[in-house]
Design goal:
about 10% strand; 6-stranded parallel beta sheet; single chain; alpha/beta; 3-stranded parallel beta sheet; globular; about 325 residues; 9 strands; TIM Barrel
Length: about 325
């Protein structure tokens, strides 16, 4: 099969128009967020919704639970949908739910989302206490069943400890290097070097709050950052994790940032004058524009194998070795 086109993270307003757009754009797989602050039951409701879409639009989308599902999607002109959680809320405080979540098709779980969780510290907390006792147990269980540890929204110490503790490679599915743009959500050089040394994956983000010059970021500027990242961390550890929130109303931002934990408005990475979704850069508005990034990578000097690796080949390799069961927990 030709090299796949894979997006490492989206939270779009899903439905037939976007499913057809993904096919028009040749997108072979997308990691989709199915829960932010939902409980286990709330997550199941989202899976029920996706199951209805799979039944109704089976000619466009299929469940993505393995690398082979991505290959099947590519061979049959469909898009594989890989489920992920942006908080550990759906496992509540029950270690046994990790295996259940994986059985239901979830393949990524963030250990924290901006705030302190039962597992780890989020990047908006003042104090980072690292991975908790429950978090250490959760990482062992996630490694065992094949649920990827995602540290996209976690704080520095927690992220470094997760990389050290996890026996399987960790992912940062949607963030950029802080040396390029120092957003609180972007990751330090120390973190990204440790991630690469452990054979983890970084999905580079196209969300304007993570970009140098925000919505005014240029394709050339973004691709030059990708090139420097490849030099520092190795091209084999880099992919795209666009963090695209296409067609979502601004009200969704409140759910993403606030959940149920506060009655105050938490503007997070935006400013008080612009609490909603920022405009996307003109060169990346939706799934139709992903192939334009490939052209931009070529323009800054990547050869064809390098472009193919970044645009999806690296994610497919990561899926192949991460989604199945690992070593059993010692008795």
């Amino acid at each position: 099969m030709p090299a796949p086109l894979i997006d490492g993270l989206q939270y779009s307003n899903w439905g037939e128009p976007i499913f057809r757009q993904m096919r028009q754009g040749g997108v072979d797989a997308v990691h989709v967020t199915i829960a932010y602050h939902e409980t286990f039951r709330g997550m199941v409701e989202r899976i029920e919704e996706w199951n209805r879409w799979f039944a109704r639009f089976g000619e466009l989308i299929i469940p993505g639970r393995s690398g082979d599902d991505v290959r099947l999607a590519s061979d049959t002109d469909r898009t594989a949908i890989v489920f992920g959680l942006q908080t550990p809320d759906p496992i509540e405080n029950d270690l046994g739910l990790i295996e259940i979540v994986h059985t239901l098709g979830v393949r990524f779980m963030q250990l924290s989302y901006n705030n302190q969780s039962l597992l780890a510290t989020g990047c908006y907390e003042q104090d980072d206490s690292g991975i908790t006792r429950f978090g250490r147990e959760a990482i062992v269980e996630m490694n065992r069943v094949g649920l990827v540890v995602d540290m996209s929204h976690s704080a520095q110490r927690s992220t470094l400890e997760s990389i050290e503790l996890s026996e399987r490679p960790v992912a940062i599915t949607h963030a950029n290097p802080a040396w390029w743009y120092p957003a609180r959500r972007n990751k330090s050089d120390d973190v990204l070097r440790e991630l690469a040394d452990s054979d983890g994956m970084l999905g580079l983000s196209l969300y304007p709050h993570h970009l140098q010059n925000g919505s005014g970021c240029t394709l050339d500027g973004f691709c030059r950052m990708v090139a420097e990242s490849a030099e520092r961390y190795g091209v084999e550890h880099i992919g795209i994790g666009s963090d695209l929130c296409q067609d979502q109303p601004d009200s969704v931002v409140s759910w993403m940032r606030n959940g149920r934990w506060t009655r105050q408005t938490d503007f997070g990475e935006g400013s008080a004058s612009a609490p909603g979704f920022p405009p996307q850069p003109k060169w990346f508005r939706n799934n139709l524009d992903l192939t334009g990034i490939a052209a931009g990578l070529t323009a800054v000097g990547f050869d064809d194998p390098g472009v193919e690796a970044i645009m999806g080949g690296n994610w497919l390799r990561f899926f192949d070795r991460s989604f199945g069961p690992g070593q059993d927990v010692p008795s």
